[in-house]
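Hi Q.,

Before the meeting this afternoon, I wanted you to have the iron/sulfur cluster prediction in hand. No need to reply - just skim if you have a minute. The sequence and ligand are here:
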Amino acid sequence: MDTLGKLELLSQQMALEPAEDADTLRPPATPAPTPDHALREPGPGYSAAEPGRHGRAPCGHSPAELHAAMQAVTQDGGDPAPDLDRKRHSLGVSYAAMPGGKRIALLKTLLTSACERDCYYCPFRARRNFRRATFKPDEMAAVFSQMNRSGAAEGLFLSSGVAGGGVRTQDRLIDTAEILRRRHQFRGYLHLKLMPGAEHDQVLRAMQLADRVSINLEAPNTDRLRRLAPHKVFLEELLQPLQWAHEIRRTQPARTTLFGRWPSLVTQLVVGGAGEDDLEILSTTAHLTQQLRLARVYFSAFHPVPETPLEDLPAENPWREHRLYQASFLLRDYGFELEDMPFTPQGRLPLDADPKLAWARTNLSETPVEVNRAERPALLRVPGLGPKGVDVILAARRHGKLRDLRDLRALGVLADRAAPFILLDGRRPAHQLALF
Ligand code: SF4
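Predicted structure with the ligand bound:
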């Protein structure tokens, strides 16, 4: 198989990896569930057979078409092909949001889709019958470098199936990064995966080369991981590398890294594949973001994959994934604690309500927040006010009182969303009842 054929094959399998997606915070396309919905009930137009909620279905291009596509993409000085985005997409390039909001074209791919492990949810699991592809480190570095020079991809997210053990696989990922950085002088964005069981010095080397490193915990704790991936060891194989990475950032000088700064850390959890509740997921998320300083935790709503032990398990409702993202940002950026979350007796977040709004309805409806006097933490609790909006309000207060919703709108905050929960100069602002 040629290089571009391999890239296309690998791109078809990357839909289960939401890390770096620019649209993870966008609500699902399906209507929000009403309070009557069962927790697992899929919304209209949502079925287990769909490839993934972001619609990254295999494109069906033949390798010959891909050759033509890459030639168009890589022609020096040539006009970009009119359907450039579609061609890039077929090779595994999607848009990723960087810290600060910049969007880049990111090649998300694997060094190999061969894997000796047998995780129950995974399309790459050993013995599953599908066509696999493998790159050597210098081959991957060369094809990405070519795409980068042509403008087809600005950054690389590189993962791998486990072949020959986690340590050897990690070595090949690091080799690829070394070749890219040294031989090809690539200075753009690189997200490198850590393999289960990676050693301390490998974690250190990956961190010296990459802008971001991650290892997928997949489940919130040992018991749940056993139901998803019985041969992975939660503490030693998965959590330990993240703890090392945190320790390295905390104790070692960043001058040994390529850019003089340590990379960010992220992880990913499968949602709905192991009978876990949201309390378990968010407990682990709070630990990771607050104690280990992970930049974020990605959530991947479970989708059954044919020919896996979990193929008959229903797909998870994408609204659950969305509510978990909302809650995780409240924990990370808004000063919320786990006990503030509106958990049901079953430890689940209601699917029909934004968790911040649910908290405010219970806690602020009778005791609204005076916008002209409240401290930052109290303002952050108000729906419609985020960290940036609160900063703008605090700055505006130095110049005078905020007296009505027009003053807030002029500052660019979501005044109507905040209105039921605030006072402006001692008075509740007039607002229309929202039907949410
Ligand atoms: S180790 Fe990774 S690639 Fe291999 S089966 Fe498990 S999740 Fe899939």
